Amino acid sequence: MEFLAEEWVAILVHIAVVAGAALRVVMLRPLPGVALAWILLVAALPVLGVILYLLMGERRLGARRASRLTLLRTKYSEWSEEILEDRVADVDWSRHSPLSRQVDTFAIRALGIPTLIGGDLELIDQPLSILRRIAADVDSATSSVHLEFYIWHVGGAADEVVRAAVRAAERGVCCRILVDSVGSKDWLSSEHPRALRAAGAEVVEALPVGAIRTITSRNDLRMHRKIVVIDGAIGWTGSMNLVDPRFFKRDAGVGEWIDAMVRVQGPPVELLAGIFLSDWQLETGEPPDELFAKSDMRHLEPVGNADVLVVPSGPGHYDDTILQLFLLGMYSARTEIVLTTPYFVPDEALLRALRSAAGRGVAVHLILPAKVDSLMVRYASRSYYQDLMECGVHIYHFGDGLLHTKSMTVDGRGSTFGTANFDMRSLWLNFEVSLIVFDAAFTGRLRQLQQSYIDRSELLDEAAWNRRGFAVRLVENTTRLFSPLL
């Protein structure tokens, strides 16, 4: 009888755990497939399932960041209203495709952020040039230097940026440096942060991790943005971390990382500055009004011909806006989509958008690195190839290094460029920033860069690809099950 009583207690505890987990999952309303997967995992493995769910089942920022986000929303709304009232949001939509204005309308309704006119965008794809130009811009700073990167790595020309920031701080320029706790772990323990702080710069670690923090927030939410803002007038963003590829991950077996960045001038810089300051406030807790007031935030005059939408994305209050904007671009295509990304693990919506485009006669070109620094991502990504090639999507393997540029061009008239990969981690979990550019000239330059990648790639043959063995297919399809976590 005592044994049976213990058995009944265990059964009741099991039922309570599963019911409690199911209730929480259902009330948070994730996608049905995701919800069912978590409920089944907890039902099969109650202890492990609950632990995994607490670790990665929700996009929890923690109570402190959530309260700071509430303050920021008010400030963000005021700031967005000022921009909307300013003439730099008066885009001449007759210059662009008919759907472009709908993209702008969606962004305003979802984020309160409009497309801004008069951007001057310089696309640069040589890493040493990028690092030295950033260092030169820092050396030219007279009032503020804001640097935000997922990875800052010691060595080579990346150190020139450190030395430039030290010089700027020593001459009285306000220098704020925000780096991700995980991505920049080694750099944070090097002598560089100490040298910067000694010169007067502020160095802040974004989204710190730890066992105790796991209780209140999710540890794998990462600050994946790359933003530079100088004196509130010059901005940078794109795919490249603050690393010299000649010294970075040389033992990973994937070759040098291939990246590109955009140097921005004109009204869009204000939005990049606002995103940086929002991230800074989330980590430091500085009052938003005071922080924005003393940080070179100002309206800038048009200096170029590009109309640019600057889109922040990530946990908190951005939801799936960047995913929907990518989908809008894909469904608007009439002749061509060219897409580059290092990590391609799409959800069903992205997969259908690409297949739909190819099915209606759009030339879809997908350029991916032949090797990436994650075996799971490599196999999961390849599980989607057959579905895409059957619809006519052209898939290229870039073999001259790890192609890290994240870009999309549509019909040679519009483009996206930034930090977000086409995987669920970037689109749902990481803090990212993307530019949606309505400008044929910039899109043409980006399309030329994409073509240079195609010229250095191998076009996959569908028949040859379908001959790979059962064991390889099994690994790919099994790894695909973990797509939402990759």
Structure characterization notes:
This protein has 486 residues and is α/β, with parallel strands linked by helices. The chain has 3 domains: 2-56; 63-307, Endonuclease Chain A (Endonuclease, Chain A); 321-485, Endonuclease Chain A (Endonuclease, Chain A). Helices cover 47% and strands 19% of the residues. It has 20 helices and 19 strands. The strands form 3 sheets. It has a 15-stranded mixed sheet, sandwiched between helices. It has a two-stranded parallel sheet with strand order 7-14. A two-stranded parallel sheet has the order 11-17. Helix 1 (2-28) runs antiparallel to helix 2 and helix 6 (127-140) runs parallel beside helix 7. The longest helix has 27 residues, at 2-28. The protein is globular. The mean pLDDT is 87.
Q: Which descriptors apply to this entry?
A:
alpha/beta; 20 helices; 486 residues; Endonuclease, Chain A
Number of helices: 20
Estimate the mean pLDDT confidence: 87
CATH class (first level) name of the largest domain: Alpha Beta
Query: What kind of oligomer do you see?
Result: single chain
CATH T-level fold name of the largest domain:
Endonuclease, Chain A
- Alpha carbon gyration radius: 23 Å
What percent of the residues sit in helical stretches (DSSP H or I)?
Answer: 40-55%
CATH superfamily of the largest domain: Endonuclease Chain A
Q: DSSP strand (E) fraction?
A: 15-25%
How many angstroms does the end-to-end distance come to? 48 Å
How many structural domains does the protein architecture include?
3
| Number of DSSP strand runs | 19
Q: Structural class from helices and strands?
A: alpha/beta
